Every structure is written in C-alpha cells, then in structure tokens.
Amino acid sequence: MSYRTSTVGLDFTEIVSAFDVDGISRLTGQTSSDFDVSFYRNGAKVISADNISPTWTIAEIDTDTGEYALSLSGGFSVAGHWVISVVISATEDLWRTDVEVVSTSGSDTISGAPF
C-alpha cells in the first residue's frame, strides 16, 4: 500500500510488485487479464456509468521482473480521495494505493473544502 498525490488530468503511473504464493518469488509473465483493477472515489466504487473511471493499462516492466506498471492515461478526471485496488488473479493477493487528487483550478470541492 502506498499514499500518493496527483493532479486532475495528469498521466499517473504506479508500480505493482507481484509475488507468487510463497511471498518471496516474483510472479512474472502476467498480462492485463491477470489483474482485476477497481477504483473508488471518496469511499464509493467507481463504475463505468459514472463516466469518471480512469483508462488504465498494466504491463510487466522488462521481462521476468515481477514488477508491473499500472498506467492511467489522462490520470484522474476529477479531484477527490481515490483508492486503486488491484487483485492479482494467480494468487488472489490484493494491492492498494490511495491517491489524493487535486485540481489546479481550485474549483473542485469535497465537503466544501477546495482541492
């Protein structure tokens, strides 16, 4: 788990480390279909009908590293407290990061506080 900050509209990349069930060996050779990625904003799960779900890809960095780059093209479309949840299918391990997304314009607000 990590905690990051980002700005609305900026590309965003996070590194996901994947380990086999022994917790030591790197899990390599996974493709995007081997990951279940979900997004939450301000505590609510983001669904495609919300029209704010980030466009993402995930791919292994180099080969046999067990390190995967989760990239959000265009980043996050609105400010707020975002949680990215990644389940690695092979092991059912959960990886998570929290991202505080802010707007440079100051026009996005959460509970009356500018972000």
Report on this model:
β7 and β8 (93-102) form a beta hairpin. The strands form 3 sheets. This protein has a 5-stranded mixed sheet with strand order 1-8-7-3-4, with no helix packed on it. Strands 2-6-5 form a 3-stranded antiparallel sheet, with no helix packed on it. It is built from no helices and 10 strands. It has 115 residues and is an all-beta fold. It has strands at 2-7, 12-17, 35-41, 44-45, 55-60, 67-73, 80-88, 93-102, 109-110, 113-114. The chain has a single domain (2-105), classed as Immunoglobulins (Immunoglobulin-like, Sandwich), CATH 2.60.40.10.
Listing every helix as H and every strand as E from the N terminus to the C terminus, the arrangement reads EEEEEEEEEE
* Major β-sheet strand ordering: 1-8-7-3-4
- Beta-strand fraction estimate: over 45%
Report mean pLDDT, rounded to a whole number: 91
Q: And the CATH topology? A: Immunoglobulin-like
Task: Indicate the CATH class.
Answer: Mainly Beta
Choose one word for the global shape: elongated
Number of domains: 1
Instruction: Name the helicity range.
Output: under 10%
Parts with pLDDT < 50 across at least 5 consecutive residues: 109-115
Largest sheet: 5 strands, mixed
**Tally of alpha and pi helices:** 0
Task: Let me know the number of strands.
Answer: 10
Distance between the termini: 23 Å
Instruction: Please state the oligomeric state of the protein chains shown.
Output: single chain
